[in-house]
Design a protein that fits this description.
Layout (H helix, E strand, L loop, with lengths): L16 H6 L14 E7 L5 E7 L1 H4 L4 E5 L22 E2 L5 E7 L2 H10 L1 E6 L18 E2 L3 E2 L1 E4 L2 H7 L2 E9 L11 E7 L2 E6 L4 H12 L6 E4 L15 H13 L3 E4 L2 H7 L6 E9 L5 E13 L21 E10 L12 H19 L3 H7 L17 H12 L11 E3 L2 E13 L6 E6 L5 E4 L9 H13 L6 E4 L16 H22 L9 E6 L1 H5 L7 E13 L5 E11 L6 H20 L31 E5 L18 H4 L1 H13 L5 E2 L3 H4 L5
Parallel strand pairs: 1-14, 10-27, 12-13, 16-17, 21-22, 25-26
Antiparallel strand pairs: 1-5, 2-4, 2-6, 3-5, 7-8, 9-17, 10-15, 11-12, 11-14, 15-16, 18-19, 19-24, 20-21, 20-23, 24-25
Helix pairs in contact: 5-6, 8-16, 11-12, 14-16
Length: 698
């Protein structure tokens, strides 16, 4: 791979890195103005019911408090597309933590003190916040997230399972998880001459602009949303969130700039979470390991505000060949905060269960887990029958096994010891769909030989500015440092969110198209460029409207080595290796960072992270980083990411696949499978904390 800066794939340095480490990069809560008011929400203190009275006199007497908004005096909103944005419109309390008031003050400290002085009376109702496999409210939705059918059947999976000589029937449990980006959700809003400008911590300011315009009854031209620098999101900032609506309402009501930054302890109830899932996997196979039946059935929850169905059964429709398949979802509406997108939604949850079951099948058959997966490679996508645009899972498994030293592995469990530590290794596959959405971009050539690309992409820490400059430079035949990228404002050409591992493919396709047209225009131009230069604009509406005849997915293989303390039950990951097939890698430096970041998040999912619902209180108990344990550097002593060079002409002009999410997909299963190999005990509930592991140790 060439390191030439003109070649896609070169490890070009992240261009905003210095701004971030020197503090000159400004985030949503750093755009204050003279006379700015600070907001602090008052969260509902009951898990269900109605507000019957709110007394604000004590709050208004706190020095510095300016206004208290409640459902009695807040500006009226139009009906939003997303019901979670209908804040302070009535006294209903759909779950604990729902905003029931907003205090505005001249300082954050005064706003907080004022919020504590607001007195709220409630008429409470009974609440139900516990997900169970036999809940009487369960139903089969027409669709799971992403437009996937709620239930898919090929052949007769259950009959084929009963007839199979080797069978696995296991249930895997995942509790709720929270995204917890480094930068909490925040917004700063101001009105000037009828125009609303909002700095919002968001993964897509076009979507936030459209959402605000709708709820506020404005033309979109009267709203500008800026998300120039965003400190992570992992899906939780992928749609408009209440903080931007509350800030805009308050700014309209007071006529002043309003800033609202959510305290981390409030985020668990306001900005979404990965829904818990109960997953039953049934695999039937011949004694040669060839699958004859695959059944993956999900039970999950949504809120009473809106339906959100984690599509965890969908990966089983992609992964392995089988003549009979049943993949379905059932969901129940509970009195809980609304679930939402979290890194690799569906795939992260579903592949944990499927890849754990594949390991159980390998153990039952006495077949190497890598070999078992290779024996069940499908010739085409199992459910749709479409050919894969490329599928190099087998290459990832083989290359990963070589790099990891898998061939010398003793398959017998609980045989390797090192003092009190039990050692084991595990493997799991990974997949994530190739997604792309319509985007627009402009490309400008200036008389001084420089270029400028404008597209409303969002950089949530992925290096979008850098990669988009590389894409443009490769078309324009110049170095990336000659290309300026303007991103992060809804006033720029519209583009979709940074989510679904689709950002670079969507934005980059538009940039590539605009740059290609600019090259053509420049070739036709004679003489010096005009003082204003030449600008072209392009969008990918025509390209993205065409349905591909191919099944397009990224694939990967994860390998893990763990040590389990036989005295305490503590699990330590010693090595993590990921090998990926994700099309053409556009920047090796930022790509490796994305892969490793996903793997670390998968390690957290496996060992430390969990959001527990208190059945009496009706809220998540882990609501800060002291109780919700994300991995630290000490938890990942040796982590490596590699990739297969993949030439896939059926994707986009760059030949790239998304890389932001596939790193998390198989990691938890690989670690869980390694724990089983170390201890001989199969644990089917994450996270694998010492209290769960210790009872199974000798």
């Amino acid at each position: 791979m060439s390191d030439s800066p003109q070649v896609p794939g070169a490890p070009v340095l992240r261009r905003e890195g210095r701004d971030k480490v020197t503090g000159t990069a400004r985030y949503a809560a750093e755009h204050t103005a003279p006379g700015c008011l600070y907001g602090w929400i008052v969260p509902a203190a009951v898990p269900g019911g109605h507000v019957t009275a709110i007394r604000t006199a004590d709050a208004l007497s706190v020095p510095g408090v300016h206004t208290v908004l409640t459902h009695d005096n807040a500006p009226r909103l139009e009906e939003p597309d997303d019901p979670i944005l209908a804040v302070l419109q009535n006294g209903r309390v759909p779950h604990r933590g729902w905003p029931v008031a907003l205090v505005l003050a001249g300082s954050p400290e005064a706003a907080r003190a004022g919020a504590e002085a607001v007195y709220v009376e409630y008429a409470t109702t009974g609440h139900d916040v516990v997900l169970t496999a036999d809940h009487p409210g369960l139903y089969t939705p027409e669709e799971a997230n992403g437009g996937h059918p709620g239930l898919r059947e090929r052949g007769d999976a259950l009959r084929a399972f009963d007839a199979a000589p080797v069978r696995i029937d296991a249930t895997y449990t995942l509790g709720g998880l929270h995204n917890h980006p480094m930068e909490p959700h925040a917004a700063t809003a101001r009105w000037a001459d009828g125009h609303l400008t909002v700095h919002d911590s968001s993964q897509g300011s076009t979507a936030v602009r459209d959402g605000l315009a709708k709820v506020l009854g404005l033309d979109r031209e009267h709203v500008t949303v800026i998300s120039e620098h965003v400190g992570g999101g992992f899906g939780s900032k992928g749609t408009p969130r209440p903080q931007c609506v509350l800030a805009a309402m308050a700014a309209r009501h007071t006529g002043l700039t309003v800033q609202l930054a959510l305290p981390r302890r409030y985020m668990a109830a306001v900005v979404g979470h990965r829904a818990p899932t109960l997953q039953r996997v049934r695999l039937g196979a011949g004694r040669d390991g060839v699958l004859t039946s695959v059944s993956h059935e999900i039970v999950t929850q949504t809120s009473r505000i809106k339906e959100f169905v984690e599509q965890a059964a969908v990966p089983a429709r992609v992964m392995y060949a089988s003549p009979h398949s049943r993949t379905g979802h059932r969901v129940v509406a509970l009195d809980v905060p609304s679930p939402s997108w979290m890194r690799a939604p569906g795939e992260a949850s579903g592949m944990y269960a499927l890849e754990s079951a594949m390991d159980e099948l390998a153990c039952a058959l006495g077949i190497d887990p890598v070999e078992l997966r290779l024996r069940n490679e499908p010739p085409a996508e199992p459910d749709s029958g479409r050919p894969f645009s490329s599928r190099n899972l087998a290459a990832c498994l083989r290359e990963g096994a070589r790099r990891f030293g898998w061939q010398g592995r003793d398959p017998q469990p609980a045989t390797r010891e090192e003092g009190p530590w039990l050692l084991g290794t595990g493997v799991a596959s990974a997949t994530y769909p190739v997604l792309v959405s319509k985007a627009a971009a402009s490309a400008h050539a200036a008389p001084d030989g420089s270029y400028r690309v404008r597209v409303n992409a969002t950089d949530i820490g992925t290096g979008a500015r850098t990669v988009l400059a590389q894409i443009a430079a490769s078309v324009l035949g110049t170095a990336p440092e000659n290309v300026r990228t303007d991103i992060g404002s809804s006033d720029l050409p519209p583009a979709p969110v940074a989510g679904g591992s689709s950002g670079t493919a969507s934005w980059g396709s538009a940039v590539h198209k605009a740059a290609t047209e600019l090259v053509r225009r420049l070739a036709e131009h004679t003489g010096p460029l005009p003082p204003r230069g030449i600008t072209v604009t392009a969008d990918t509406g025509e390209e993205t409207a065409r349905e591909s005849p191919y099944a397009r997915h990224a694939f990967g293989a994860h390998f893990a080595e763990v040590a389990v303390d036989s005295l305490t039950g503590e699990v330590r990951v010693r090595r993590l290796l990921g090998v990926y097939a994700a099309g053409r890698i556009l920047n090796s430096r930022t790509a490796r960072s994305q892969f490793i970041g996903g793997m670390v998040m998968g390690l957290g999912m496996a060992l430390t992270e969990g959001s527990t619902m208190d059945p009496v209180f009706g809220d998540f108990t882990e609501n800060d980083l002291a109780s919700y344990h994300v991995p630290s550097c000490a938890d990942v002593p040796d982590i490596q990411a590699h990739w297969i060079d993949e030439d896939d002409p059926h994707l986009n002009p760059m030949g790239s696949k998304g890389i932001g999410e596939i790193g998390i997909v198989g990691t938890a299963a690989a670690i869980g499978n390694a724990v089983r190999h170390a201890t001989g005990a199969r644990l089917r509930e994450l996270p694998l904390t010492p209290d769960k592991v210790l009872p199974y140790l000798p």
